[in-house]
Fold these 2 entries.
Entry 1:
Amino acid sequence: MSFVDVTMQLLDGFKITLLIFVVTLVFSLPLGLIITFGSMSKFPPLRWLTRTFVWIIRGTPLMLQIIVVFYGPGLIFGASGFPRLTAVLVAFIVNYAAYFSEIYRGGIESIPQGQFEAGQVLGMTKFQIFFKVILFQVIKRITAPMGNEVITLVKDTSLARVVAVSELVKSAQDIVGLKAIIWPIFYIGAFYLLFSGLLTLLFGYLEKRMNYYRG
Amino acid sequence: MPILEVKNLYKSFGREEVLKGISFTLNKGDVLAVIGSSGSGKTTLLRCLNFLEKPDKGQIIVGGKTVFNADAQEELDEQALRKNRLHFGLVFQSFNLFPQYSVHKNITLAAELLEKEKYKGQKLTKQQKKEIQDRVSRNADELLEQIGLLDKKDAYPCELSGGQQQRVAIARALALSPDVLCFDEPTSALDPELTGEVLKVIRNLKSSDRTMIVVTHEMEFARNVADKIMFMSDGIIEAYGTAEDIFTNSTNEKLNAFLMKTSG
């Protein structure tokens, strides 16, 4: 199998990797914010419930969560459950939302109380204070840890392989098994490196863009 | 009729009683300086007036209208609370400007939101929105002119000195034209050479229709600018009167001991 053939076949797998990456981000970024509000709620039962949920998600392997989402419904309800890719997406979105929620919470709690109070004495609503004053400052402060998490996601997509979704690693393994050549499995490292390299540049650019002010 | 009437205000944090029955009145155009040692309750009093703390007992009446009553049966909803809070403005010790916005935007942000809220329920045309923005923006320019920082309107707070930041914070509070403007130790976070410019701005704000309450450690400022001076100690008003009453003719032992200490 030629280098070009292998590359073309791996690109098919990379499409799935990219799909998991993008869909996970699109849904987990806002979902994380909702979880943050839950874990910062003034209503204790909601706070405990949310924090227990975050504990479970962060306290178990993502691979196990994928398995549970894919096989769980069938075992418990006898239903057919989710298709493979959907199960993977659900597990990824929930898992990353939990991690993001903790980064958001850290960011929000790091904003000085005076910023909230300044908004209050200026007659702004809680909603206005959050979206017009606090949110942007939080985004600036959490860009670095978010960059970390997003780059981790690039590599975590390989866990989808556990329920036989043909992402990049599985595509490479298929070639290895079928054609008895070993190098494609090493070659995919370049895909991940290139992708995370681009993201590093992107986050560097974002940080620079937000550096127009201090504090 | 006094512009501000505070009746029997009490506030505790846990077991610690910080305000123990504060009552006073203030006439329109008066400048009240509040002095006293740290922990005497000065800042808590200001925070209660601005609804940042909820008093346990007492009433706050502005221009004859009760804006806070601890005995009221019903709790105010957020909307009513916000409306009542706008009778007061507050300038913080640590400025608390919004760092991501320019000086000009810091001043217009809340004013513009409040203006637009007046038209709630109606769909504003682009033209109307523009008119509101222009009006608020012109007002901000005037305020910046007044505090001598019009040339810094596009600067960000981090590019300004502490004194300039505090002057912007004063303009931001003025933009909402509160009935009573409060200052919480406005110069305490500043280097000594910067306090003068801020005090000068506050002094120049004095006018017949602007009522101000200034918590301060600047005795000279209190003596020269304030119409009334309140000396607080352990959560009560120990002495209340004109500069002469307080600085010259006082027989209050606590006050005299305090003045002795602050004059070094």
Note: Residues 126-146 of chain B form the longest helix (21 residues).
Entry 2:
Amino acid sequence: MATETAIENNAAIGEINKYDFRTESKAFFKARKGIDAEIVAQISEMKGEPDWMRDFRLKSLDVFFSKPMPKWGGGIDLDFQDIYYYLKPSEGKGKTWDDVPQEIKDTFDKLGIPEAERKFLAGVKAQFESEVVYGSLKEDLAAKGVIFLDTDSAVREHPELVREYFGKIIPPHDNKFAALNSAVWSGGSFIYIPPGVKIEFPLQAYFRINAENMGQFERTLIIVDEGAEVHYVEGCTAPMYSSESLHSAVVEVVCKRGSRCRYTTIQNWANNIYNLVTKRAMAYADATMEWVDGNLGSKLTMKYPAVYMMEPGARGEILSIAFSSHGQHQDAGAKLVHAAPNTTGQIISKSISKNGGRSSYRGLVRVEKGAKNSKCNVVCDALILDPHSRSDTYPYIEIMEQDVSVGHEASVSRIGEEQLFYLMSRGLSEAEASTMIVNGFIEPLVKELPMEYAVEMNRLIQLQMEGSVG
Amino acid sequence: MSHVLRIENLRVSVDGKPILRGVNLEMKHGETHALMGPNGSGKSTLGLVIAGHPGYEVTDGSIFLDDEDVLEMEADGRARAGIFMAFQRPASVPGVKMADFLRHATTNVRRPDRKEGEELIPMREFRQELKAKMEQLKMDPEFARRYVNDGFSGGEMKRAEILQLAMLQPKFAILDETDSGLDADAVRLASASIAEIGREKMGLLIITHHDKLLEHNPPQFTHVMLGGRIVETGGPELAHELYSQGYDRIRAAYPEADRANQEMLSDEAAEFALG
């Protein structure tokens, strides 16, 4: 309830500031509802962007209007003219901790998330301690030539680098929501790792301070130069809520020769959110790209992280976990495109449906002509917790080359009465037993997460399972 | 501390077909009972019903642990009240480590009032105890890190069940053919382990076809099941008679129970053929 009030207030301020948004007042700038060329131009102007970016946005807008809604996935019931596309909180005037709904705070408590991180996660743009904690880290990264900024700042500070890659991995015409993001994007991370630089610890979004990164249309671009390595961690298991019902991000990754990138996302959206995200990486010779993607919550998630293996020896691995509960549809999966010889791909997907939720695996494996001696393996396992829930598998396999090896295994299981009875016969309650079975099911993925995320993930599953049995 | 497990006139059906037809059995804490009988007589069913398996319908009779009505409890409540069954074919739970499972189980059984989410036994303390118990049972420490029954051999499963018996220290334990599928040495080790862990420290109900498991656990009482009833109860000499001479005398003496037993077996066979 508190959020709604806050939004009302912001809207009022937005009205007042509608005509003087250039003044960068201390109050909120909020574009009016809806989407058209004027609003897109306003956003670009607000940000003081170069012409090329403004033109890119406007062209993308045309693409957005020209594209039909996707006919696959889940039903999307959105009125694009009833959404705010840009909200700029000015310094120190953003949401306050008091505006964060109690249930979100309670969940933070249960997850044991540190205070500073909570505020960040809740989108509270207040002073927080990570500035001090991560200050030295930032210096260390900078000394190595690493660029780690929000994407808006990157456009200002590193225009050539951004322009070379921005929208090249995922062009606006790729799909309707990529086009929308290209028109109205805001925030997101920009990372550049110079040749040969290996970052030993995971880079996390909350290292990047005082930045706009919780936007609905964030745009992330990661360039891992030759022989470099990075692990980027985005999001968190804490529930994220948004004042708007649409979250549509674009994430582009370039893995140059011999480099390695792992991108880990765990997202837990509020139940009213359409989460429609395009993620794609291009992996060049002997480079490895790994997506670890966990999706919880939301009304509908459509997300299929992709790796295009462009040159010989490239590797792509995608691990995906989806958890859907009442009123939720996770249409998640992966795409692997083998566009060169001797490329290796792997998809492991695990989905859990409970309490009437629906999880779908949708995956594409394409081996292009000439991609000889490529190997690809797909494993998708679904766990259904009760008779009201649903799981579907939509594997698409396109093979244009003879000399390849492609495997696909799929399994669907229900929590067995025998497993449940066995654990209960040792004193575990039904809820504890179910949670344990579910945690066991996703264990092969959770052990790939950084420690603190693995712990959070397990706690989160426990929370999701609470009250679901009985 | 003299606990009693009392089963009276227990009648149980599956899909409307009677399997247990009036079982009476009384065990005191510290006693060892052997439960014998031909295939299909209802021995495992009796164990599963005591442990609270949801697949059986109790149509009549009662089970009491002291003055607690066992049939009123779910399986977890029974475990917390002190009932344990070592299963013939325990379920596997992939991705769940033996140690994590056992820490939860041990905590709940020792602290029956524990609510979900409350603290578990401290890790250090638990590990030390688990390590000691595993050494006692001559188990590889690596075992604790394996997933529950996942890919276990028959022998490993049985030892895992005995390990759980050792950790949970129930008041009453039902051991369902804990010797089956084991070679002679393994049975001897199992028999000695059970004696060390449970003999006179709990009430033991040992379901077996053979004498080896009883080697270190001579029963004070031997019960013979046929056609879903305990038709005869005797001392250790009855167990000896049955595993040396078989069930011909029993079948002849209780023709009605024998007929019921044949019917249940043919139902089982039909079900198996369909499945």
Note: The mean pLDDT of chain B is 92.
